[in-house]
Write a structure and sequence with these properties.
Blueprint (H helix, E strand, L loop, with lengths): L11 H16 L3 H8 L3 H8 L7 H11 L4 H11 L6 H8 L4 E6 L10 H13 L5 H18 L6 E7 H5 L5 H15 L4 E6 L13 E5 L5 E6 L4 E4 L2 H17 L3 H13 L3
Parallel strand pairs: 1-2, 2-3
Antiparallel strand pairs: 1-4, 4-5, 5-6
Length: about 280
């Protein structure tokens, strides 16, 4: 019987597969026995062990439960998932999960923290159709949206300031019911006691200080972290010398943008199909 050996150092995916095989063999289990305990087929387990199939969060958690390994496989899975994310984004998400304040500005699409699962799924499926990501990566993107939102639903919750370019709310994504539910989610977000929601209108023109999405985090120790990205690259910045000017520009953006009440009124009109 041919046995494919993986180099654990070649990639996080290979490391996960090699670890799964090693722990299984330490238990003296066959692939069939491990598959039965984990709720998968032996073919699926074989594909993960040999690096032919990406592990999922569900599989990683099933492995931890079956083997009694705490969260070792879940942590290994996160390294696999992070290979499909822009540089700096995995580290940013870790900071975001414990931030005291989140200030975000987005262009074109609703930001992940405010997305419904249906809206996120439409974006992910579109990326698959374009060949930008695989089906497995699409599933992980959708799961990541839920994880990020859950991480912010803590006590006490962070203060979240969201300024969306008008293109975010006017650009239709998916069927009308998907977009309507997404707009309803924005209204729910605006109604929370720890949030501030604004829309930067097209009429702001060259007074808009940002051309690309940016997020600024205030961490529990009051230090600042920023994250900005383009289509193919992300950048995490921890140096206050560079983050403070972004914070100043963000305050200017908020000052130039209409109030939350006006933003809520705009969203309500859009839901009714009026300009």
């Amino acid at each position: 019987m041919n046995r494919k050996e993986l180099d654990p150092d070649s990639s996080p995916q290979a490391a996960f597969g090699a670890r799964l095989r090693s722990v299984r063999e330490e238990r003296g289990w066959t692939q069939e026995e491990a598959a039965e305990r984990m709720g998968y087929s032996s073919t699926h387990i074989s594909a993960v062990e040999t690096g032919r199939k990406l592990p999922t969060l569900r599989l990683a958690r099933s492995a931890d439960k079956a083997f009694g390994t705490g969260d070792a496989f879940e942590r290994a899975y996160r390294k696999v998932r992070n290979t499909g994310l822009l540089e700096g984004f995995p580290q940013f998400v870790e900071h975001e999960a414990r931030a005291a304040e989140v200030r975000l500005y987005e262009v074109g699409v609703i930001p992940g923290l405010l997305q419904t699962q249906e809206y996120a799924a439409v974006l992910a499926r579109s990326a698959v159709k374009r060949g930008a990501i695989t089906h497995e990566q699409a599933e992980e993107r959708i799961a990541l949206v839920a994880e990020r939102q859950a991480a912010l639903d803590r006590t006490p919750p962070p203060l979240v300031h969201a300024v969306l370019d008008e293109s975010c709310v006017r650009r239709p994504i998916g069927e009308p019911d998907v977009m309507d539910a997404q707009l309803a989610r924005l209204l729910e977000f605006a109604d929370l006691p720890t949030t501030l929601f604004q829309v930067a209108p097209f009429s702001m023109g060259d007074r808009r200080p940002f051309d690309l999405p940016v997020t600024i985090l205030t961490l529990p120790d009051r230090s600042l972290v920023s994250y900005a990205e383009s289509a193919h690259r992300g950048h995490l910045e921890r140096e206050s010398t560079f983050v403070l000017p972004l914070l100043t520009a963000y305050h200017q953006l908020q000052g130039e943008s209409p109030s939350q009440a006006e933003a809520v009124a705009m969203i309500s009109r859009l839901r009714k199909g009026t300009p």
